[in-house]
Write the structure tokens for this entry.
Amino acid sequence: MAQRRKVNLKKILELYGEKAAEAGRQAIKENGETLALAARELAPVEKGFYNGRQFRLKHPGRLRDSIHVEQKTKDKILVVADAADDKGRCYARIIEYAPFGKPFMMPAYEAKKIEMINHVKDAIRAAIRK
């Protein structure tokens, strides 16, 4: 059985040149937006979800609206949910990981993972062919 190798953008740059690496970077940015959109769709918004919870929110859509993409370096992006309640406590991780929570980020990632990988591969292949 052949072992898969991890290939990052630096390796692509060495093998295929700046054009392919730039196409990969652009595809990764687009994937960040794709993932953020999918996570926004899955984030709990309904008031009933928050009733009886530690975080009773006046604005239930705050978690959904806080999901965004941050560019850390030219090769690294993050999809972030940084909603805070009225007392300034960030609660996105609690909603994602707590036993009473409703995961939204990991299910979005799992749903879009193959599509995002294929998008990057297709973008790099297209850049190499040009």
